[in-house]
Amino acid sequence: MKRFKKIRFIWALVVLLISLWQSKTAGAQVFAPTGYPDRLVLTLTAEPATSQVVTWRTDTAVPTAKAQLKQEDASPAMEEGFLEFAAETLPFMGEEGRKDHYHRVTFTELKPATVYAYRVGDGTHWSEWCQFRTADTNGSTSPFTFIYLGDGQNDLKSRWSRAIRQAFRQQPDARFIVHAGDLINRANSDSEWGEWHYGAGFIHSMIPAVPTPGNHEHFRDEQERLTLDPHWNTQFALPANGPQGFNEVYYVDYQNVRIISLNSQFIMLDEAAQELQLRWLEDVLKDNPQQWTFVAMHHPVYSTSKKRDNPPLRERFKPLFDRYGVDLVMQGHDHTYARGKGPDAAANGPVYLLSVAGPKMYDSDSDRWMDVSLVDTQLYQTIHITGNKLVFKAYKVSGELFDTFELSK
Ligand SMILES: [Fe+2]
Fold this sequence. Notes:
This protein has helices spanning 2-25, 156-170, 190-200, 203-206, 231-235, 264-269, 271-286, 311-323, and strands spanning 38-43, 52-58, 66-71, 83-86, 88-93, 99-107, 115-121, 130-133, 144-149, 177-179, 209-211, 218-220, 226-228, 250-254, 257-261, 292-296, 328-331, 337-340, 351-354, 372-374, 379-386, 389-396, 401-408. By secondary structure, the protein is an alpha+beta fold. It has 2 domains: 38-133, Purple acid phosphatase-like, N-terminal (Immunoglobulin-like); 144-408, Metallo-dependent phosphatases (Purple Acid Phosphatase, chain A, domain 2). The strands form 5 sheets. The chain has a 7-stranded mixed β-sheet with strand order 14-15-16-17-19-18-20, with helices on one face. Strands 11-10-9-21-22-23 form a 6-stranded mixed β-sheet, with helices on one face. It has a 4-stranded antiparallel β-sheet with strand order 1-2-6-5. Helix 2 packs parallel to helix 3 (190-200) and helix 7 packs parallel to helix 8 (311-323). 46% of the residues are buried. Bound molecules: fe (ii) ion (FE2).
């Protein structure tokens, strides 16, 4: 009788575990890799005028991979005159427990302001030929535009995809796309990253991503340590010029612009990491020959919710933004739109931007620090730089222009 009870208990436990697993994965589409490259993502290197890095994914039947590159001359004879680059291959296992391979190649010795075509594969299974354009030389004032997107986070395939695709339709020659954190909802969920890559389609095989992580890209490991989703540094090849141990913290000089990514989740929750980023940021701002300086970080300096507040950003980071003349701070997290210089703006202080690309929406009920605000609307933004002039435009995903302003130096 006792033994029967024990078996019944074990069986009940098994049923419970199976139902828990099913509820966790219910409706989640599996995005399994094959021998063919997928999830192609370009990211900016520290020298975007002369180099470009790409990462992609395959199954583990592809042990080594490579990329082919040629300057785009519009000839269909793609098999002639290309250069070949061997890939670095990283084995990867997400929380779903499947083994994948991620590969990366950095194309070097490129010509500035030039269109290249490339493809990636193992020699048998190839991607299509994709194009990218190198930046003009560092410090160049030749005009360019980039896109800034707020949180994606939820329903990436179903509803966020409209934001990035309409942004691409609006600005197909954008030189990069800033993602201001919370790209996904559950850290290390491969199916959510699958939706993100599906939503972005081929866009990031042509236009580099400039991602900064949010709270939802972090989890606590078994020792309760705050940990960044391992997908991040596997699929985004970032410039490795951040503080020790924080590869997601970096800066890129693109023509006459310096763009800086901070990890605001670590700033909020880890005092040592906050100090480290603060000191690094001061160095990066102090020694900065660029005409324009932009910061991308997930948590806002000024919230749009009366229930939310991020004092370390206001008390410790804002003084640096003011002192060193940061022009724009691109943020997310509050799931609304807001734009303004804030209640105690320095003359030299930045314009604080807050936006949302995905479908999750919050109230905007904080003190009215902003000049412009909006709720319940999915948006995307374009930023045009022409020498010493900047034109910012925020669009609803319908394509309707909602907000615009200009800055000049
Ligand atoms: Fe967030």
